[in-house]
Description:
Strands 1-2 form a two-stranded antiparallel ribbon. The protein has helices at residues 14-20, 29-49, 69-76, 78-109, 116-128, 131-142, 148-155, 172-196, 201-209, 214-242, 246-251, 263-273, 277-311; strands at 52-53, 64-65. The protein is built from 13 helices and two strands; from the N terminus they run ααββααααααααααα. It is mainly α. The chain is flat. The relative contact order is 0.12. Helix 2 (29-49) packs across helix 13 (277-311), helix 9 packs across helix 10 (214-242) and helix 12 (263-273) runs antiparallel to helix 13. It has a domain at 49-114 and 173-305: MetI-like fold (Orthogonal Bundle).
Amino acid sequence: MNSSTGRKPTPRGLFGRIADHRLDYLYILPAIGVMLLVIAYPIYYTFYLSFFRTPPSLAMSDKVFNGIGNYITILTSESFHEVTINTVVWTVWSTFFATALGLGAALVLNRQFAGRGVLRGLLLIPYVISAVAASYIWRWIYHSDFGVLGAILNRLGIIDGKLNLLDNVNLVLPSLIVVNVWKEFPFAMIMILAGLQTVPDQLLKAARVDGAGAFHRFLHVTLPHLKGVMVITVLLLFVANLNHFTIPWIMTGGGPAGASDIWITQIYQIAFGRIRFGLASAYSVILFAVMVVIGYFYVRALTGNDDVRRRG
């Protein structure tokens, strides 16, 4: 409340806040210039190229304008719908299981016990291993003839014969999701573990005194304090999985018969396999539009608490 006039101050808009800090932007002007060069221009050129037909027989200088023809070709193709289903399955289930496993691991590591530091280090190993190295390791684990997993299951009598995972159209995508979850859950674990450190001990002790069990303490005390970090973790994992290229490409190349093909591998195949850069650019713009929507919710999640504090 303005004490001199008795009126509430007028909220400052985006441009008003920029004007207030215009001198501060001089310090980051070089960084902004670099970002415009390496980020903004490629985005612009990709969007521009998406309106041109660039068949392999023509040089880039001979590209032909065809309006939204590339977008129509992509959105009406049968393969797009199949790849979209694969992408949704890959992204949603990878995010869900990585978050769930990370939450479980974080709850365990949040307790005091002997060897907690060692266990934390061991659980971080999948995350620090290179995605390329992890992909080749798991290819050998899944190998139908020489794979460790198949040998163990045969020894235990669970299966009899070869374990065919990467060449099975029904099992290949779940098998890749397992690898991706193994690689990503430590990230969720660290994020959620950091959030658990912010839960007030006084509230947990008060709930315990009131007779609340472990489950109810988690549901009514711990989980509300984890809401912000959980939303951010899920959004970050969702974005990472939507753009994840290494594991699907190295382990299967999108096969067999496109059963593990997702948007990002399809874009790569169109651009560098079929040399259709215009079509691949249109595909990239569609992916970029989805990412912008997710980015909006991510920014809302980051700034939500600040808005609440300002209103308070």
